[in-house]
Amino acid sequence: QITLKESGPTLVKPTQTLTLTCTFSGFSLGTGGVGVGWIRQPPGKALEWLALIYWDDDKRYSPSLKSRLTITKDTSKNQVVLTLTDMDPVDTAIYYCAYAHWDSSPKWFDPWGQGTLVTVSS
Amino acid sequence: SYVLTQPPSVSVAPGKTARITCGGNNIGIKSVHWYQQKPGQAPVLVIFYDSDRPSGIPDRFSGSNSGNTATLTISRVEAGDEADYYCQVWDSTTSHVVFGGGTKLTVL
Hints:
The complex is a heterodimer of chains A (122) and B (108). Chain A has 122 residues and is mainly beta. Chain A contains no helices and 11 strands. Chain A has strands at residues 3-7, 11-12, 18-25, 34-41, 48-54, 59-61, 69-74, 79-84, 93-102, 106-112, 116-120. Chain A is globular and about 40 Å long. Chain B is built from no helices and 9 strands. Chain B starts with 8 loop residues before the first strand and ends with a strand. Chain A binds chain B through residues 37, 39, 46-49, 52, 60, 62-63, 96, 101, 105-115, and chain B through 1, 31, 33, 35, 37, 42-45, 48-49, 54, 86, 88, 90, 92, 94-102.
Protein backbone atom coordinates (compact mmCIF):
# COMPACT_ATOMS: atom_id res chain seq x y z
CA GLN A 1 0.00 0.00 0.00
CA ILE A 2 1.39 3.39 -1.04
CA THR A 3 1.03 6.30 1.35
CA LEU A 4 2.43 9.83 1.31
CA LYS A 5 2.41 12.57 3.89
CA GLU A 6 3.42 16.20 3.61
CA SER A 7 5.13 18.09 6.42
CA GLY A 8 6.47 21.58 6.89
CA PRO A 9 5.59 24.98 8.31
CA THR A 10 1.99 26.11 8.41
CA LEU A 11 2.92 29.79 8.42
CA VAL A 12 5.68 31.59 6.54
CA LYS A 13 6.44 35.26 6.16
CA PRO A 14 6.60 37.05 2.82
CA THR A 15 10.02 36.74 1.10
CA GLN A 16 10.89 33.63 3.13
CA THR A 17 11.66 30.25 1.57
CA LEU A 18 9.19 27.42 2.05
CA THR A 19 10.58 23.93 2.53
CA LEU A 20 8.14 21.02 2.41
CA THR A 21 8.90 17.35 2.88
CA CYS A 22 6.95 14.45 1.43
CA THR A 23 7.57 11.23 3.35
CA PHE A 24 6.28 8.13 1.66
CA SER A 25 6.04 4.38 2.06
CA GLY A 26 5.11 1.46 -0.16
CA PHE A 27 7.59 2.26 -2.91
CA SER A 28 11.19 3.32 -3.45
CA LEU A 29 12.50 6.13 -5.60
CA GLY A 30 15.40 3.81 -6.29
CA THR A 31 13.07 1.71 -8.43
CA GLY A 32 12.61 2.40 -12.13
CA GLY A 33 9.36 3.94 -13.28
CA VAL A 34 8.62 5.67 -9.99
CA GLY A 35 8.09 9.35 -9.29
CA VAL A 36 6.66 11.93 -6.89
CA GLY A 37 4.90 15.13 -7.78
CA TRP A 38 3.85 18.27 -5.93
CA ILE A 39 0.55 20.02 -6.59
CA ARG A 40 -0.98 22.95 -4.75
CA GLN A 41 -4.46 24.39 -4.37
CA PRO A 42 -5.16 27.94 -3.18
CA PRO A 43 -8.29 28.18 -1.03
CA GLY A 44 -11.36 27.82 -3.22
CA LYS A 45 -9.32 27.52 -6.40
CA ALA A 46 -8.13 24.88 -8.84
CA LEU A 47 -5.26 22.44 -8.65
CA GLU A 48 -1.90 23.72 -9.86
CA TRP A 49 0.97 21.40 -10.71
CA LEU A 50 4.33 22.47 -9.29
CA ALA A 51 7.05 19.88 -9.85
CA LEU A 52 7.93 16.24 -10.55
CA ILE A 53 10.94 14.09 -9.75
CA TYR A 54 11.59 10.58 -10.98
CA TRP A 55 13.73 7.61 -9.97
CA ASP A 56 16.46 8.64 -12.38
CA ASP A 57 16.54 12.18 -10.90
CA ASP A 58 14.72 13.59 -13.93
CA LYS A 59 13.03 16.78 -12.71
CA ARG A 60 10.27 18.88 -14.24
CA TYR A 61 8.92 22.21 -13.06
CA SER A 62 5.91 24.39 -13.65
CA PRO A 63 6.98 27.03 -16.16
CA SER A 64 5.38 29.84 -14.19
CA LEU A 65 7.26 28.95 -10.98
CA LYS A 66 10.41 27.33 -12.33
CA SER A 67 12.74 30.10 -11.15
CA ARG A 68 11.53 29.71 -7.55
CA LEU A 69 11.20 25.93 -7.24
CA THR A 70 13.62 23.15 -6.41
CA ILE A 71 12.71 19.49 -5.99
CA THR A 72 15.10 16.90 -4.58
CA LYS A 73 14.92 13.32 -3.36
CA ASP A 74 16.51 11.36 -0.55
CA THR A 75 16.10 7.75 -1.57
CA SER A 76 17.48 6.37 1.69
CA LYS A 77 14.91 8.31 3.73
CA ASN A 78 11.99 7.80 1.32
CA GLN A 79 11.54 11.55 1.14
CA VAL A 80 11.09 14.23 -1.50
CA VAL A 81 11.72 17.87 -0.61
CA LEU A 82 10.23 20.89 -2.36
CA THR A 83 11.52 24.40 -1.82
CA LEU A 84 9.76 27.54 -2.99
CA THR A 85 11.64 30.78 -2.60
CA ASP A 86 10.42 34.34 -2.14
CA MET A 87 7.04 33.41 -0.73
CA ASP A 88 4.12 35.77 -1.28
CA PRO A 89 0.56 35.79 0.10
CA VAL A 90 -0.64 34.46 -3.28
CA ASP A 91 1.33 31.28 -2.51
CA THR A 92 -1.08 30.52 0.33
CA ALA A 93 -2.44 27.09 -0.53
CA ILE A 94 -2.82 23.47 0.39
CA TYR A 95 0.30 21.70 -0.86
CA TYR A 96 -0.06 18.04 -1.88
CA CYS A 97 2.48 15.43 -2.82
CA ALA A 98 1.41 12.43 -4.87
CA TYR A 99 2.77 9.24 -6.39
CA ALA A 100 3.46 9.94 -10.05
CA HIS A 101 2.85 7.09 -12.46
CA TRP A 102 5.18 6.68 -15.41
CA ASP A 103 4.66 4.79 -18.65
CA SER A 104 7.28 5.99 -21.13
CA SER A 105 6.30 9.49 -19.98
CA PRO A 106 4.68 11.04 -16.90
CA LYS A 107 1.07 10.04 -16.49
CA TRP A 108 -1.30 10.38 -13.53
CA PHE A 109 -1.06 10.98 -9.80
CA ASP A 110 -2.35 8.33 -7.45
CA PRO A 111 -2.52 8.24 -4.51
CA TRP A 112 -2.20 11.70 -3.00
CA GLY A 113 -1.11 12.76 0.44
CA GLN A 114 -3.58 14.47 2.75
CA GLY A 115 -2.11 17.89 1.96
CA THR A 116 -0.73 20.60 4.19
CA LEU A 117 -2.03 24.15 4.40
CA VAL A 118 0.64 26.82 4.12
CA THR A 119 -0.32 30.40 4.89
CA VAL A 120 1.88 33.30 3.86
CA SER A 121 1.43 36.29 6.12
CA SER A 122 3.52 38.76 8.05
CA SER B 1 1.33 26.50 -23.09
CA TYR B 2 -1.35 23.84 -23.28
CA VAL B 3 -4.72 24.80 -21.81
CA LEU B 4 -7.52 22.54 -20.57
CA THR B 5 -10.97 24.11 -20.39
CA GLN B 6 -13.72 22.77 -18.14
CA PRO B 7 -17.17 24.20 -17.43
CA PRO B 8 -17.22 25.75 -13.95
CA SER B 9 -20.34 23.88 -12.95
CA VAL B 10 -22.64 21.04 -13.94
CA SER B 11 -25.94 20.21 -12.26
CA VAL B 12 -27.80 16.92 -12.46
CA ALA B 13 -30.72 15.25 -10.75
CA PRO B 14 -30.16 12.04 -8.81
CA GLY B 15 -30.33 8.97 -11.00
CA LYS B 16 -29.56 10.90 -14.16
CA THR B 17 -26.32 11.08 -16.17
CA ALA B 18 -23.73 13.81 -15.70
CA ARG B 19 -21.23 14.67 -18.40
CA ILE B 20 -18.24 16.83 -17.60
CA THR B 21 -16.13 18.01 -20.51
CA CYS B 22 -12.46 18.89 -20.78
CA GLY B 23 -11.47 20.79 -23.88
CA GLY B 24 -7.99 21.09 -25.31
CA ASN B 25 -6.30 21.44 -28.67
CA ASN B 26 -6.23 17.95 -30.20
CA ILE B 27 -6.68 16.44 -26.75
CA GLY B 28 -7.72 13.20 -28.43
CA ILE B 29 -4.06 12.30 -29.01
CA LYS B 30 -3.21 12.74 -25.33
CA SER B 31 -3.95 10.55 -22.33
CA VAL B 32 -6.49 12.21 -20.05
CA HIS B 33 -6.88 11.49 -16.36
CA TRP B 34 -9.72 12.58 -14.07
CA TYR B 35 -9.83 13.30 -10.34
CA GLN B 36 -12.68 13.71 -7.89
CA GLN B 37 -12.23 16.06 -4.95
CA LYS B 38 -14.77 16.29 -2.17
CA PRO B 39 -14.72 19.23 0.25
CA GLY B 40 -11.83 19.09 2.66
CA GLN B 41 -10.31 16.03 1.03
CA ALA B 42 -7.40 15.29 -1.27
CA PRO B 43 -8.16 14.50 -4.91
CA VAL B 44 -8.86 10.90 -5.85
CA LEU B 45 -8.17 9.39 -9.25
CA VAL B 46 -11.38 8.16 -10.89
CA ILE B 47 -10.31 7.68 -14.52
CA PHE B 48 -6.88 7.18 -16.12
CA TYR B 49 -5.81 6.62 -19.72
CA ASP B 50 -9.02 8.30 -20.93
CA SER B 51 -11.37 5.54 -19.83
CA ASP B 52 -9.75 3.12 -17.37
CA ARG B 53 -11.07 2.92 -13.82
CA PRO B 54 -8.84 2.31 -10.78
CA SER B 55 -9.92 -0.48 -8.52
CA GLY B 56 -12.64 0.63 -6.15
CA ILE B 57 -14.15 3.20 -8.51
CA PRO B 58 -17.75 2.32 -9.43
CA ASP B 59 -18.47 1.43 -13.04
CA ARG B 60 -20.89 4.35 -13.07
CA PHE B 61 -17.79 6.41 -13.85
CA SER B 62 -16.57 6.26 -17.44
CA GLY B 63 -14.49 8.38 -19.76
CA SER B 64 -13.96 9.09 -23.43
CA ASN B 65 -11.59 11.20 -25.45
CA SER B 66 -11.69 12.29 -29.07
CA GLY B 67 -10.87 15.31 -31.15
CA ASN B 68 -10.73 18.39 -28.97
CA THR B 69 -12.85 17.11 -26.08
CA ALA B 70 -12.50 14.53 -23.34
CA THR B 71 -15.58 13.65 -21.31
CA LEU B 72 -16.13 12.19 -17.87
CA THR B 73 -19.53 10.53 -17.65
CA ILE B 74 -21.18 9.65 -14.36
CA SER B 75 -24.23 7.42 -14.75
CA ARG B 76 -26.99 7.01 -12.18
CA VAL B 77 -25.68 9.98 -10.25
CA GLU B 78 -25.85 9.78 -6.46
CA ALA B 79 -25.70 12.51 -3.84
CA GLY B 80 -22.26 11.23 -2.87
CA ASP B 81 -20.93 12.11 -6.33
CA GLU B 82 -21.23 15.82 -5.55
CA ALA B 83 -17.66 17.09 -5.78
CA ASP B 84 -15.17 19.02 -7.88
CA TYR B 85 -13.77 17.15 -10.87
CA TYR B 86 -10.46 17.91 -12.58
CA CYS B 87 -8.98 16.65 -15.82
CA GLN B 88 -5.22 16.35 -16.29
CA VAL B 89 -2.80 15.61 -19.10
CA TRP B 90 0.93 15.47 -19.74
CA ASP B 91 1.89 17.93 -22.43
CA SER B 92 4.83 16.27 -24.15
CA THR B 93 5.55 19.40 -26.19
CA THR B 94 6.48 21.41 -23.12
CA SER B 95 7.14 18.50 -20.72
CA HIS B 96 4.62 19.85 -18.24
CA VAL B 97 1.65 18.54 -16.31
CA VAL B 98 -1.56 20.46 -17.00
CA PHE B 99 -4.75 20.49 -14.93
CA GLY B 100 -8.10 21.78 -16.05
CA GLY B 101 -9.78 24.51 -14.05
CA GLY B 102 -12.17 22.09 -12.40
CA THR B 103 -15.92 21.51 -12.56
CA LYS B 104 -18.23 21.59 -9.58
CA LEU B 105 -20.83 18.86 -9.87
CA THR B 106 -24.04 19.66 -8.02
CA VAL B 107 -26.61 16.95 -7.42
CA LEU B 108 -30.02 18.62 -7.32
